[in-house]
Amino acid sequence: MIAEKMKNMVANSSAIRAMFEEGNRLAQIYGAENVFDFSLGNPNVPAPKAVKKAILELIEEEDPVALHGYTNSNCGYAEVREAIAASLNERFGTTFAGKNIVMTVGAAGGLNVILKSLINPGDEVIAFAPYFGEYRSYTDNYDGVLVEVPPNTVDFQPKLDEFEQKITPKTKAVIVNTPNNPTGVVYSESTIKKLAAVMEAKQKEYGTDIFLISDEPYRELVYDKAEVPYLTKYYANTVVGYSYSKSLSLPGERIGYLVIPDEVSDSEEVLAAANVATRILGFVNAPTLQQKIVAKCLNEKTDISYYDRNREALYQGLKECGFSCIKPQGAFYLFVKSPVEDEKEFCAAAKKYNLLIVPGSSFACPGYVRLAYCVSYETIVNSLPKFRELAKEYF
Ligand code: PLP
């Protein structure tokens, strides 16, 4: 019999799998080109050519025993970590060294490593709705408690007054994700400054450490020159979790890193804990070939113009149909207001037109739906007549 804790998780993940299977079923009946699957955040822009070149060079030129072996430190290759630190310092004016970087199995691996390193049973982790639903499972993995700050549906910047009320002596960490999945919102510098001030004051009041975990797989996916503040500069107890899943279109390769700056309280200990956590969670080390690939591709970028064209077409198209949503500044998601209170009902109605979209309740924000526009431009253009038909049911 499976563990009690897993029963709910299995039930929830079957809902996601059901949507995936439904997409396949519809594609078999109507043809894949007539099914408009906006459910998954799987980038459809190929990885930059430099990635393939790096792979071939590494395979040809490196000693295969070293290339495919365990790394000396569970945190990854020293030269890769140094190269990443230097690149961050150049871009953001920070002063990281290689030792501040821990190579991870994507952002998901990084979040698990840092939560494993920090959380005692019963510790609270705060997240701002809407948030990536896995934060709840990751926190629960370490018997932490996820505390939710309700959404600000005006502009989806975090509600800082309510945030302040939610911080308790048990608060160990706060997770922010900007550019945000599912809204595409970038938290402004003024939001970040206020958030940092609230956290500083609460640390003082309670005499505790409250860590800010910046989950940033979408950092480079921004439009209209939006600025994404680098959070270690605003709050000392910040740990950054980065991933190449979206920025280099490598989600299946499972590669990212954590930044644990010297300014973090007991940073040596936190780094040592992250090293051990990487090992005992069973990752052992982030994939070695991928570490070397990303180190060779630090200046590479995904083709953001591709997502930008999709963003414009879908945003304008849906607005013309009568739907309302804020224009995303980053990532590749649109968060659309459901025309009926129960957004699951709306998702079911959309399915009649072969439109697959995700209910906002999966992100702790019912009444909204998420559309991932990392699909082909043709999918967007061809879906718009279907959205028009769907809209006629409501407006
Ligand atoms: N965090 C957020 C906000 C995400 O949207 C995702 C993936 O979609 C992840 C973390 C996990 O990313 P990775 O593939 O790097 O594990």
What does this structure look like?
The chain is about 45% helix and about 15% strand. The mean pLDDT is about 95. It has a 7-stranded mixed beta sheet with strand order 2-8-7-6-5-3-4, with helices on both faces. The termini are far apart. The protein has about 400 residues and is an alpha/beta fold. It folds into 2 domains: about 5-50 and about 300-390, Alpha-Beta Complex (Aspartate Aminotransferase, domain 1); about 50-295, Type I PLP-dependent aspartate aminotransferase-like (Major domain) (Aspartate Aminotransferase, domain 2, 3-Layer(aba) Sandwich). The protein is globular and about 60 Å long.
Summarize the structure.
By secondary structure, the chain is of the alpha/beta class. The protein contains 13 helices and twelve strands.
Keywords:
three-stranded antiparallel sheet, Aspartate Aminotransferase, domain 2, globular, binds pyridoxal-5'-phosphate, alpha/beta
Q: Which helices and strands appear, and what pairs or packs with what?
A:
Elements: H1 4-30, E1 36-37, H2 49-61, H3 64-67, H4 78-92, E2 101-104, H5 106-118, E3 124-128, H6 134-141, E4 145-149, H7 160-166, E5 171-176, H8 189-206, E6 211-215, E7 238-243, E8 256-259, H9 267-280, H10 288-296, H11 304-321, E9 333-337, H12 343-351, E10 355-356, E11 358-359, E12 368-372, H13 377-392
